[in-house]
UniProtKB/TrEMBL annotation:
Domain annotation TrmE-type G: ranges: 249-419
Name assigned to this protein: TrmE-type G domain-containing protein
Cellular localization per UniProt: Mitochondrion
Taxonomic lineage of the native organism: Eukaryota, Fungi, Dikarya, Ascomycota, Saccharomycotina
Gene Ontology BP annotations: tRNA methylation; tRNA wobble uridine modification
Alphabetically ordered keywords of this record: GTP-binding, Nucleotide-binding, tRNA processing
GO cellular component terms attached to this protein's record: mitochondrion
Length: 498
């Protein structure tokens, strides 16, 4: 028979639901500061939001929640001092972003208007009268939302990713965190681990009354569940690592002899004059990085010094060395070839292509200036010569930066490559999570599971290792886990008292 002292031992009270009503009312300019703009939004959250509205509008009228209203705003102590005419929106707690009363003031943009309104709100701070009002700290609105149980940490981090998203793929992946897809996933994993801890706890507490064979079966069963879960979590971590490329940008290096058209290619792809194009060979002498958006992917493209064998210029030589080095650590190298050169590829570049350091890089040969090739036969012949010179079959894409021929094909091929590199070619969205989450998954969750697998003959240690993994997931979402919860699961899902 299970002996526990009082059912409320199992009550699970998430520690974050402590409420924020005792905290100061906070306010902040939620649109970029110091800029001229059509509108600027000041957001206020806390118990005194309604008071602030009433004081600024010089009226005791109760605001209708969620109804936009055009109001004149005055300085609270200088009734004639009109500050602005503003759209005001009041949201009543708890159905708000922070869970507190929220007031939004949609002001006319510009330093003077926002400055005057912020000063007026500041003047309402009066501790003696019980009005604790202050400017918000960075992220404090989201912190309040978390403290009031509106979002878990993964959703909060999703909001940050969403705001930081620069491209379409980053936006989509941030949305999957923000929408709670990751939260659901983590909660499922955690509950699976807790279920299995519960089974082990039952053996620890009631093993003496249980047949050895039954105990062995339970342990085997737990082990097989945890092994399956480990594979799923590892797959998720692998996907995060591939998706990380979306946040940091896919690194492309352009390599090739001087005058092959590297700078022209950047300008053609970006449809902008980013790089200097000139007939003078050796115009680009250093590695120059530019961020681009190609097909919704963030790309960091690096224009490099043209590689030639006979350079005697020290600076140029340094530039060439840097170019070759850069190409070793990129995600994709585009090797530009000018069909009018003889040989097509300089000796030093051929050696670089064959070097072991460069073997793992993804490469495409871009045969530029095909407008200078007269017939399809000559084009085929040039492509054959390239493969003969380098001795391996790297894919070749013929283009002309001048006429635009082949650029669409190149772009399509690049996007397919980006999908593969970032693992976004399947139906599921990429996964962008914070570094914090990635670290906890590896250092706590996978670590705890591996410890469990190594201790499986020692039920107590095995159970503690799983507890470590579950606590790790609790850290990710911001939820605490206690032994009460484990006992709660034992109590509710096991008929231990037989
Ligand atoms: N006919 C033709 N000329 C091109 C094409 N692309 C580039 N050029 C010309 O080739 C010359 C060199 O182009 P760049 O883009 O500066 O070449 P680069 O590889 O960046 O040169 P470096 O900076 O010297 O390494 C310029 O005069 C371009 O106008 C093309 O597709 N066809």
């Amino acid at each position: 028979m299970l002996k526990v002292s009082g059912i409320n031992r199992f009550a699970h009270i998430p520690c974050r639901f402590i409420g924020t009503s005792c905290l100061p009312t906070i306010y902040a300019l939620s649109t970029p500061p110091g800029q001229r703009s059509a509108i600027a939004v000041v957001r206020i959250s806390g118990d005194h939001s309604k008071y602030i509205l009433q004081r600024l509008t010089n009226s005791n009228k109760e605001p209708t929640p969620r109804l936009a209203s055009l109001r004149k705003l005055y300085h609270p102590d200088q009734k004639e001092n009109l500050l602005d005419t503003s759209l005001t929106l009041f949201f009543e707690s708890p159905r708000t972003f922070t869970g507190e009363d929220i007031l939004e003031l949609h002001l006319h943009g510009g330093k003077a208007v926002t400055g005057a309104v912020l000063k007026a709100i500041e003047s309402l701070h009066d501790l003696k009268k019980g009005f604790n009002i202050r400017y918000a700290n960075p992220g404090e609105f989201s912190l309040r939302a978390f403290q009031n149980g509106k979002f878990d940490l993964t959703e909060i981090e999703g909001i940050k990713e969403l705001i930081d998203a620069e491209t379409e793929t980053q936006r989509k992946s941030a949305l999957s965190s923000f929408n709670g897809e990751n939260k659901l996933r983590f909660l499922q994993w955690r509950s699976q681990i807790v279920d299995n801890i519960a089974k082990l706890t039952a053996i620890i507490d009631f093993g003496e009354d249980t047949e050895i064979e039954d105990i062995e079966n339970i342990i085997m069963n737990v082990e097989s569940h945890i092994l399956e879960l480990r594979a799923v979590i590892q797959q998720f971590i692998n996907k995060i690592e591939r998706s990380n490329i979306l946040r940091n940008g896919i690194r492309i290096v352009l390599l090739g002899p001087p005058n092959a058209g590297k700078s022209s290619l950047i300008n053609t792809i970006s449809q902008d004059d980013i790089s200097i194009v000139s007939q003078t060979p050796g115009t680009t002498r250093d590695a120059v990085e530019t961020a681009l958006n190609i097909g919704g992917y963030k790309i960091i493209i690096c224009d490099t010094a043209g590689v030639r064998d006979d350079s005697s210029d020290v600076i140029e030589k340094m530039g060439i060395e840097k170019a070759l080095k850069k190409s070793e650590s990129c995600n994709l190298c585009l090797l530009l070839v000018d069909p009018n050169n003889m040989p097509l590829i300089p000796e030093s570049l051929k050696q670089h292509l064959a070097s072991p350091k460069f073997q793992n890089s993804d490469k495409i040969i871009v045969l530029n200036k095909i407008d200078t090739i007269s017939t399809p036969e000559d084009l085929n012949h040039t492509m054959l010569r390239i493969h003969q010179e380098i001795g391996e079959k790297i894919p070749i894409l013929p283009i002309s930066c001048l006429s635009g021929e082949g650029i669409d094909n190149l772009t399509t091929d690049l996007i397919t490559k980006f999908q593969l590199l970032s693992d976004t070619s399947d139906e599921s969205n990429p996964i962008i999570v914070s570094e914090r989450v990635r670290e906890i998954l590896t250092n706590d969750v996978i670590y705890g599971i591996d410890e469990f697998l190594s201790f499986k003959d020692d039920v107590v240690m095995a159970s503690e290792s799983l507890q470590h993994a579950a606590t790790g997931i609790g850290k990710i979402t911001g939820q605490a886990i206690g032994i009460e919860e484990v006992l709660g699961v034992v109590f509710s899902s096991f008929c231990v008292g037989k």
